[in-house]
Amino acid sequence: MENIYDLANNLERAIRALPEYQAVKTAKEAVDADAAAKGLWEEFLVAQNKIQALIQSGQMPSPEDQAEMTALGDKIEKNSILKAYFTNQQALGVYVADLERIIFKPLQELAE
């Protein structure tokens, strides 16, 4: 059997070679090159982290926090650069979810 670390490194290289990965990389470069898109992306990350911190501490986001995320989502939908970035992330996410399911299947079986 091949060394498990070699398999993991091969998987990393295979992921980087995926067209979906390359599309996300290109879309991220476009976000970074556009000041408006980058600013909106950073604003989104701050709001997302705030909500995640609230949830992790057992609190529910306030209606204002939820409205802020909705407004940011609307702005992102209207920004073609960020919309492409999210769309490409979702396509890559399909692979990530499938890989996660496959990799963790033996561990889940042990827990049953």
From TrEMBL:
Coiled coil: none annotated. It comes from the Bacteria. InterPro entries: Com_YlbF, YheA/YmcA-like_dom_sf. Gene3D superfamilies: YheA/YmcA-like (1.20.1500.10). NCBIfam families: PRK13676.1-1 (NF010209). HAMAP family: UPF0342. Belongs to the UPF0342 family. This is UPF0342 protein ACFPQ3_10200.
